Amino acid sequence: MSQIIYSILGLSIAVLFATSLNRSVHTGEQGIVSNEVLTQMLGVGQDVLEDVGRRALPFDSKTDESTLPTPIDYPVVHSAAELTPALSFGGCTSFTSCGDLDDFHGMPSFQRVSNGITYDVTIEVRYVQEANPELAAAAQTFAKEVNVLVSSQSIQVGNNPLTVGYSRVFTYDKATDFTPGAP
């Protein structure tokens, strides 16, 4: 009789050990998959920001030197107040139809596919403080932050899709107090 009890006890311990081992392996694999997905989402965000930067668009419609007869060495605008107000940001309907940096703001969401997972991409643009680009600016500045938000309906956190943000600050490099023809 005692051998049966010891056999059942030994079998129970073996089952508990196997269950615990399977649970820890499963949790480890979930962590690995989650990290891979987050890395992929950041990669999609980085690719979109690189695409924005690669397009070499003017910083603002008011700084577009391509409309001038010859290239110039002085700033097209002399004050940030001359730049497009944030309320007027937007204007393009697709990634390739944007004419300057702030046109990306409010553009309809689009999708990118990476390793068989479809990601929804949204772009937001805002003025930021030049001295501290982590803070939004109340008025126009010579610094704009482009935020790329990447999410996927197939990856949920609770009832919401997992969303990852990626950002880059672009500045207008010819911003000075230089006035053409001044001594």
Topology readout:
Blueprint: H1 2-54, E1 110-114, E2 117-127, E3 143-157, E4 160-171
Antiparallel strand pairs: 1-2, 2-3, 3-4
In words, what does this structure look like?
- This protein is of the alpha+beta class.
- It has a 4-stranded antiparallel β-sheet, covered by helices on one side.
- Strand 1 and strand 2 form a beta hairpin.
- The longest helix has 53 residues.
- The chain is elongated, with a radius of gyration of 27 Å.
- The C terminus is likely disordered.
Task: Record keyword descriptors for this entry.
single chain, 183 residues, alpha+beta, four-stranded antiparallel sheet, 23% strand, elongated, disordered C terminus
Main beta sheet, described? 4 strands, antiparallel
User: Outline, from the CA principal axes?
Assistant: elongated
- As residue ranges, the low-confidence spans are 176-183
Task: Kindly state the percentage of residues in helix.
Answer: 25-40%
- Helix-strand category: alpha+beta
Mean of all residue-level pLDDT scores: 81
The strands making up the biggest β-sheet line up spatially as 1-2-3-4
Number of strands: 4
Computed over alpha carbons, the radius of gyration is 27 Å
Report the total helices: 1
Task: State which percent range the strand residues make up.
Answer: 15-25%
Distance between the ends: 109 Å
Q: What order do the SSEs take from the amino end to the carboxyl end, as H and E?
A: HEEEE
